[in-house]
């Protein structure tokens, strides 16, 4: 799916800014879509709504909210194809224009769009969006469905409290705050009536040259042609046929930390689109992960789209800061844990040479729920999982920064190992079939009884989240090292590359302890020193991504001190003690050839 673009044939109008807003209830009320809201509040778009107001009703909301604004389209553009596009609205929404439904969407992390009939437009048009933030067993990410208080087992029966006092609310089966709303940029854009619908770029490096194919899916117009420009804007390929392959001699490669992007201008009839692309290869060979033929070592993070006030909303300045901090700490990569990130962030990573593993929003997956109704929800979720995988690859396929796909984070693959194997086999096959660049595919696992897992054999690279020294053996780093060693010994037998996609300990910034007690910055530092000393012993371990880049918001509860504090940076992006350890360590670990002999093995 192409990102909206302003060029000589296309226009884009940004719908960001102040919208009218109303906090609704559990059922959809069409009057708030069809008619202008009375005495509306103001809410900023793009951003989550939860943290924009002081009142906790916005944080605790369960159900629908309504957004409205007016827009106009200049008369001279009414002969064009006019499209309304949202980057992401979490989690379900219905969109009305002038009292009529235009589109609805399920899934909070990927774009969707619909054509607007120019004849339906007036001078001022009412655009309304109803957004539902509820999560359950059928959604991704997964929500639990118990109306329960945070009381432990074995306490008196609080049934009557549950029934009367405790409001319905979301119980995320995942560890990040369920920030919702119009989280990413919304646009109206125009194209000619006959237009370029999609572009796919495939590159192959052969004997120092690059074979490139830029194919276009066309709507109405016939036969597209391609010109390619280098980074300085010099035309290096003139009017190639979009259906055939051409060669770029002595290409400049896209490399981690040293990005180089070309631009393909695709023209068809009266339309054109400028598609950036990079030339790089990605491949798994034995137990190595190769980028441009060389063994790459992942140094970086699991992250979140999370910040004060914006919540999960798109914040371009913060993204620039985060990438700059990654360079400061000598990281080269991150995983889009636990959902596809904004397209704008991936474009930034393309430019900055940051390596990304793209993850679907499948977090919190279990496979064995009791009754029939729950089973039906699981089936709906399985279908949705395929849809989001398909949409994510369609959206992100051309980004050189993306080098692998993660199908899910920490599904329960050992409760019913055969069922999990069957479930993921379908998804692995689908991802391999859909990706024109054949990137490696993985599932990020974290099972305590990991020997029961049967999905590791399906993965191209094994990805493990592990918290020895925190959830298991908290405060005992000798035991943690031994348990980690035991697990690495087990996985070394698969003959595949393995990456630690999460490990970490909460550290509350400013808590210090000479004895390195849990929750202190010293403990977080010693935790990483201990676990890293184990990882360094195994050459099949091709990467370490600390959990997390920065502190982030979660649900309230006794497990979290004002959110998850496993960040190497605070939520406002100040480095903790352990950040300095990584800055030094990663400064000494090269991007390529770490733990390899001089043959790169
Ligand atoms: C995990 C999850 C991540 C959590 C983290 C933690 O295994 O993948 O979403 O935030 O642990 O800190 O507990």
How would you characterize the overall build of this protein?
With 601 residues, the protein is an alpha+beta fold. The protein is 20% helix and 29% strand. The protein has nine helices and 32 strands. Strands 25-26-27-28-29-30-31-32 form an eight-stranded parallel β-barrel. Strands 3-2-4-10-7-8 form a six-stranded antiparallel β-sheet. Strands 1-14-5-9 form a four-stranded antiparallel β-sheet, with no helix packed on it. The two termini are 38 Å apart. The structure holds (2S,3S,4S,5R)-3,4,5-trihydroxy-6-oxo-oxane-2-carboxylic acid. (2S,3S,4S,5R)-3,4,5-trihydroxy-6-oxo-oxane-2-carboxylic acid binds next to loops. (2S,3S,4S,5R)-3,4,5-trihydroxy-6-oxo-oxane-2-carboxylic acid binds at residues 175, 338, 409-410, 446, 465, 502, 547, 564, 566.
Compact overview of the structure:
By secondary structure, the protein is of the alpha+beta class. β23 and β24 form a beta hairpin.
* Alpha-carbon distance between the two ends: 38 Å
Strand order of the largest sheet: 25-26-27-28-29-30-31-32
The main sheet comes to:
8 strands, parallel, barrel
Structural class call reads alpha+beta
**Coarse morphology:** globular
Topology:
Blueprint: E1 11-14, E2 17-23, H1 31-34, E3 41-45, E4 64-71, E5 81-86, E6 89-90, E7 92-97, E8 100-106, E9 112-116, E10 125-132, E11 143-144, H2 159-164, E12 171-172, E13 181-182, E14 186-191, E15 195-206, E16 209-219, E17 225-229, E18 235-241, E19 246-248, E20 262-268, E21 271-277, E22 282-285, E23 288-291, E24 294-295, E25 298-302, H3 316-328, E26 333-335, H4 343-352, E27 355-359, H5 372-396, E28 402-409, H6 417-434, E29 441-445, E30 462-465, H7 477-491, E31 498-502, H8 521-535, E32 541-547, H9 577-588
Parallel strand pairs: 25-26, 25-32, 26-27, 27-28, 28-29, 29-30, 30-31, 31-32
Antiparallel strand pairs: 1-14, 2-3, 2-4, 4-10, 5-9, 5-14, 6-13, 7-8, 7-10, 11-12, 15-16, 16-19, 17-18, 17-20, 20-21, 22-23, 23-24
The protein binds (2S,3S,4S,5R)-3,4,5-trihydroxy-6-oxo-oxane-2-carboxylic acid.
(2S,3S,4S,5R)-3,4,5-trihydroxy-6-oxo-oxane-2-carboxylic acid binds at residues 175, 338, 409-410, 446, 465, 502, 547, 564, 566.
